[in-house]
Design brief:
100 residues, single chain
Amino acid sequence: MVARYATPHVVTADAVEFIRFCYARRRVGWPELYDEMCAVASRGLFRGWGPDELAGHGIGFGLFEMPRLAVTVVDIVAEDRARMKGAIVASSSRRSPAVA
C-alpha cells in the first residue's frame, strides 16, 4: 500500500471574502455562521457562487471538511473583530478632550 498525503488546505482570498460577506449579513458565531454560509451558498448570494464554486476556493460544507472550516471561520472572524476593536480605540484616542 502506498501512503498518500493530503493536499494542503488552501483558502483563497475570495473564500475569505465569502466568510466576511456571510458574517456581515449575520453577526453570529460558529455554528450559527455555518448555517448562514450554507444558506448564502445554496442561494448563490455571493457572486452567484454555489457550493461547487466555493469548494474550488477552499470552502467545503461536508462533514469531513467542517472542522477545518470551523477553524478558518473562527480565525477570520477573530481577526476582523480585533481589527475593528483596534480601529475604535485608535479613533477614540484621536478625539480632543471634552471641554468642562
